[in-house]
Amino acid sequence: MEHAAKARDQDEHERLATRFRPLFQRIAEGEAERERTGTVPHEQLGWLVDAGFAGFRIPGDLGGEDARLSTAFRLVAELAEADVNLAHIWRNHLSFVEDRRYDRADPRTDEWLRRLGSGEIVGGGWSEPDTDVGSVRTTLLPDAEGVLRLNGTKYYATGSVYARWTTVLAADEAGHRVVALVDMTSDGVAVGDDWDGFGQRLTGSGSVAYVDVAVPAERVFSYAKRYVYQSQFYQSALNALLVGIGNAILRDGIAALRARRRSHGNALVPEPVDDPELQEVIGRLAANAFAAEATLLRSLDLVDVAVARAEAGDTAQDRASLLAVGAAQHAISTLVLESATLVFDSLGSSGVSERHALDRHWRNARTIASHNPRVYRTRLVGGWALEDAARGDTEDA
To answer: What is the pTM of this model?
Structure first.
């Protein structure tokens, strides 16, 4: 039974991947140049929307693929190999899709799922600058005429420069957390596009300010009704991006070594591509990429289980998937960051040329790995493992 389910999962992935891989290759062709010049990939995003990339998780009765979450993340990883900036902007969009899938009973849900599937991109506004973790200063309060007005500033607003809409975490009049779906063309919305990180430069992850922005009541959603596997979702999205970077490092390392003509005085052979020491470096890149992807796939198997339980009405947090995703975060980030440095050992001084732009892989990987600091996630994984072991000892006794 399990083997049959895995075969179905693989068939689903291959069917969709085969459809999109030619487009991913087209996107990859100009990615390094866009990174060098700071060219925002609006055109390439349009290609993805036109091809139906937004419809993976949209239910079949609403015109989507109704693909498993694991399939969606595997496709995000393939897109990240082509352009990790472009892949990252889908994170908040896909999260709002999960919100709506999880709350199909809401009469607004089906309309929004159709719109999301058609490519109305959603960004996110969750974190706030200069506030304690968990606090929300952004407010959604009625004015004298009863119109809800949004006021506040968000940072790390990934996808903001591409988005038609953005989801904004705010506090309502009663102090309850709500999610406001904001039209980015509204009066009072100011996109800073001021992300100053050394990686993920084209993701629109800077600030967005909201000043007396009118929000219709029908675009306000309860934060408490969000999907229960949010942690697994957000971390798996980052893990998928890192896997894509790892595969891109291998691809670019192979291409650069094959193009290298000048050897070194200490080399064992005159042709760099035939040098066994340099081949060993490529082998390590390949092994790291393989291990990172295998780790992602194993963790996504358990995420699919958590999603299925949630869709069946189980609101309990799924410990096994949390542990798997947290462990995967540590393993994948370690492997990819190693590869991002190791690739230069196969290329010599010419490898640092800006025409190769190989430094972008380390910068992007380091930025993503810093997004949710892995030291905390690894500590949580250790604590959970110890708790599970203690529970097992007690049961045995």
So the answer is: 0.94
